[in-house]
Write a structure and sequence with these properties.
The chain is an alpha/beta fold. The radius of gyration is 21 Å and the shape is globular.
Length: 370
């Protein structure tokens, strides 16, 4: 009845919602801190909330399927033409478009050993073979070696570069990414996932990717962005892809009509305009990230220096599943990375008071279990 490829796919495990913790542990919603899904802890722009309230009566209408206003706003933001943009229900829908549109004959996709799980899911659904680098983090030398060895037997249809990388947090330099794209064949699609780019660009200008420069230099690259992270619209599901006109036209052939809702488009449009809110969120993230790094050093955790809005902790003497379950029972949702084969956990950088509570709970766990 079902495709054989589904047997190879592990169901994606999303971060636990507050509602589930309420049901399972009987904790009041107001006593739960959710730092497991890399959402914006400051919510979304007040301007977005006001706009949604004013436009809620339009929910019965299908959206403008040309997405004219949002595409024009993004075009202005990135100094490109709107014909280079496609909008998706989250940037992961555009990943799906890319996998559907590939030439699947004798095809293969390359990715890092530990990266966003949906790359693998969509590739397998498309029936494409997958090869991964040996290291968990992105090491471009490994990507290039793998590319050279695998293309002897398969056509490398696509390469995923996640910058910054979720769930680990490391980030390639923008110049290194361009050097890699320059080195691969022109019929290989390079998918540069910039879901957390706003945070990386603030922390280190060498990590800042310029989508306009990418698509002007390379006809085989697509840059992905999202409104789910720094813009605080995870619940509205809006992402975008920026690429050559040819790539965008191919992806439009697999895009379903009305794939993004009327209110989601409105929310994204207003969120993009409120760059003051975005800047405040990014600055606060940097301040609180420094607290996490200091805490990790104090408590004996190893951490991966992060360029996103989250941090990954590792500890040789602590079982991450046990710790994450204990934290969950005490009202704190973080992301256990055991599903990635790692004895580690990822924490979204929250508000100051939330982070103070995180530190208190982890200290309490260590006192009990040491």
């Amino acid at each position: 009845m079902f495709r054989s490829a589904l047997k190879q796919i592990v169901t994606y495990e999303a971060g636990k919602p507050i509602e589930l913790v309420v049901r399972e542990y009987g904790i009041k919603p107001e006593d739960i801190i959710k730092l497991g899904s890399n959402e914006n802890p400051y919510g979304t722009s007040a301007q977005v909330v006001e706009s949604l309230q004013k436009n809620a009566h339009k929910a019965f209408l299908y959206p403008d399927d040309s997405m004219y206003e949002l595409k024009n706003a993004l075009a202005s933001h990135f100094d490109i033409e709107s014909k280079h943009i496609i909008i998706g229900a989250g940037s992961d829908q555009i990943i799906e478009f890319c996998m559907q549109a590939l030439n699947h004959h004798n095809a293969q996709v390359l990715m890092a050993k530990t990266t966003f799980a949906m790359y693998e899911v969509y590739a397998k659904l498309a029936g494409v073979e997958i090869s991964k680098t040996p290291s968990d983090e992105h090491i471009l030398e490994e990507f290039f070696q793998l590319y050279q060895s695998e293309k002897e037997r398969k056509h490398i249809s696509a390469v995923f570069l996640c910058a910054p990388n979720n769930p680990l947090g490391e980030c390639l330099d923008a110049a290194a990414i361009e050097q890699f794209i320059q080195a691969v064949d022109k019929d290989t699609l390079v998918i540069v996932d910039g879901a957390y780019q706003e945070f990386a660009a603030y922390k280190d200008k060498a990590k800042a990717i310029n989508p306009k420069q990418l698509i002007e230099r390379f006809s085989n690259v697509i840059y992905l962005g999202t409104f789910s992270k720094v813009y605080g619209l995870g619940g509205m599901r809006v992402g975008y892809g920026i690429a050559s006109e040819h790539i965008i036209s191919m992806l439009y052939k697999v895009r379903p009509p009305f794939n993004v809702t009327t209110l989601s488009l409105q929310a994204a449009l207003i969120a993009l305009k409120d760059q003051v809110f975005v800047s405040e969120c990014i600055k606060n993230n940097a301040i609180e990230m420094a607290r996490y790094e200091a805490f990790a050093n104090e408590m004996g955790f190893t951490f991966i220096p992060s360029y996103g809005n989250f941090i990954t902790f590792l500890h040789s003497h602590i079982e991450s599943s046990h710790l994450c379950d204990w934290l969950l029972q005490n009202g704190l949702i973080v992301r256990n990375l055991r599903s990635y084969g790692l004895n580690a956990f990822r924490i979204t950088i929250g508000r100051a008071e939330q982070n103070t509570r995180v530190f208190e709970l982890i200290k309490a766990y260590l006192q009990i279990h040491n």
